[in-house]
Each structure stands twice: as C-alpha cells, then as structure tokens.
Write a structure and sequence with these properties.
Shape: globular
Distance between the termini: 41 Å
Strand content: 15-25%
CATH topology of the largest domain: Rossmann fold
Largest sheet: 7 strands, mixed
Radius of gyration: 19 Å
CATH superfamily of the largest domain: Thiamin diphosphate (ThDP)-binding fold, Pyr/PP domains
Strand order of the largest sheet: 2-1-3-4-6-5-10
Helix content: 25-40%
CATH class of the largest domain: Alpha Beta
Structural class: alpha/beta
CATH architecture of the largest domain: 3-Layer(aba) Sandwich
Number of strands: 12
C-alpha cells in the first residue's frame, strides 16, 4: 500500500516528537486517531482540543511564546479560513513561529461540498507577510521539506493533498527544480501538478520547473533557467497566486504570463476529485489545450 501524505505527516511528526522536546502537536479532532500509537509516550506534548480551531491556533501561539515549536493540523478550511484572524494576529503580528499542516487540499473531499473544500487557502495565506508556503508533490517530499524548514523560526504552511506525483523529483526548500530545458516557454508546475503537466508538454520545446516552495519564491532560478518571455504556471489551488512573485522576479524583462489552476468560481456540482479535474481542465489534455492556446501552437 502506498503511503499517503497524511500518513507520512503522522510518521514524520511522531519521529520528530521523540527527538525534539520543543515540538508540540495541537489538533482539532482531525487525525487524532492516527496518533494513538505514540500518545502514551508523548501525552504531555500532543493535544486534541476538539472542534475549536481558533482556540487551537491561539493555544499554539501560547506555546510559541514559551519557546516551543507548535505544529497545528486540520482540514484546509478549518485550519486556514476559520481561524485566519488568529493566524494573522497571534502568530504573524506577534512575530512568533508556528507550523501549520493541512489536509484535504482544494476539492479532495469533493462530495462534502464547499464547507470542506479549500482551493483558496494558498491565496489567503500568501497575503500574510513572511508566511512560508510549501506544496509537496509526494509524501517523501513532505518529510524532507518539513524537516528542512521545521526549525527555521518562520511561520510555515504545508499543504497536503490526496493527489501526488507517481515519481520522486529532487526538491529543496525555497528552490525551484529544473526538470528540463527548452526555448518556447517556461512552465512552472506546483506540487502534485508536475505529473499531469509533464504529460501535457511531453513533445513541446519548453523549460520545465518544479515548485514545492510557493513562498518564498525562487525568482533567481526562474531568471537563470528561462529562455523565453512566455511563462506558464500550473497550480493546484486558485489560479494566479504566483503571478505577483513572477512579475516581481522578472520586472526588468517583458513577459507574457498564463496562470492555470482552479478557476475563481463556486464548484456547484458533486463528484470525485478526478471529476472536478476533468471539469475545470486540470488534466493533461486540459492543461495542454490551455498552453497551446496561449502559445498559439
């Protein structure tokens, strides 16, 4: 059985919890049952506060004030949207450090409707100064990226998803990975969008960059690797999040920019995550069609 990102989160946190006495884990019911095997050993540093997400964030801030590194976890809308004010005021405004791990990205829990969907999480958190955002494409990438950024003293959001790339790609926190080089366009795929994007541009002469750290964005690699003024971003959340950073990175070079992702509209129909991918064009065929129209090829 292949490891899912959520299960990898548990394995990573359980391992680090035993090694680092600064870590505390704070839950709001979600995933509580997954930690039972370690609960007896680390009871004093693992807390389930029930369905009180705002309290979860504020309690985490209290731990941060005492020198701990709090890790808070829930579904996307309950970790990001419901307690957004607490993240802004208790962590960002106080310049504290916390680690926020979500599950259920975009429409992973599609049949639950908009209450359990979260395509706007990265868009919202990207508006907070100094908020780091990590979007791994595989469970192993989460493990590596979390360990690399855990003790860096910053607020960091880790976006876990059901979808994942069926292969591993070298990923370093804060860096774009150059997958291949071409001349017609530069295509940036974020997290689990790498596999469908590679399939979409298989026979195209494009530079392919892989992004697992949305913020801070690696503009240096974009400038170095890109050989075209055409830039295309394929994102697994509301499209357009990286447009600001790309324009800032390329401010001295005229560019054409296309953002492909979840469209800004209410997803009213029900179905599987794959059904939604097909409906909004986040399949290899849909991505290829958008890129071809943009490049007029």
């Amino acid at each position: 059985m292949q490891t899912m990102m959520r299960q990898q989160m548990v394995e990573t946190l359980e391992d680090m919890l035993l090694q680092d006495k600064r870590m505390v884990i704070i839950l709001a019911d979600i995933s509580d049952e997954l930690f039972h095997t370690q609960r007896q050993e680390v009871r004093e540093r693992l807390f389930n506060l029930g369905i009180m997400e705002q309290t979860m964030i504020s309690v985490g801030a209290g731990f941060a004030l005492e020198g701990f590194i709090p890790v808070m976890h829930s579904f996307v809308p309950f970790l990001v949207e419901r307690p957004f004010e607490q993240i802004k005021d208790d962590f960002c405004y106080q310049q504290l450090s916390g680690k926020f791990i979500s599950t259920g990205a975009s429409y992973d829990y599609s049949v639950e409707g908009m209450t359990h969907q979260g395509p706007g999480d990265v868009h919202i958190l990207h508006g907070l100064p100094n908020m780091q955002i990590v979007v791994p494409g595989t469970p192993a990438e989460f493990d590596a990226l979390f360990r690399e950024s855990y003790g860096n003293g910053a607020n960091t959001y880790y976006r876990l998803s059901l979808s994942k790339n069926p292969f591993e790609t070298p990923a370093q926190f804060g860096k774009l990975t150059v997958v291949r080089r071409g001349t017609q366009a530069t295509v940036i795929a974020v997290g689990p969008m790498l596999a469908p994007t590679l399939a979409a541009v298989e026979d195209m002469d494009v530079t392919m960059l892989y992004c697992t750290t949305v913020a801070p964005f690696d503009g240096e690699t974009l400038r170095e690797a890109g050989q075209s003024s055409n830039i295309i971003v394929v994102e697994p959340y509301y499209e357009g999040v990286l447009a600001r950073d790309i324009c800032a990175a390329m401010q001295h070079t005229p560019i054409r920019l296309e953002s492909i992702g979840v469209p800004y509209r209410i997803l009213e129909r029900y179905g599987t995550p794959q059904d939604h991918d097909a409906a909004i064009g986040l399949t290899p065929q849909g991505i290829r069609a958008r890129i071809a129209r943009f490049l007029q090829v």
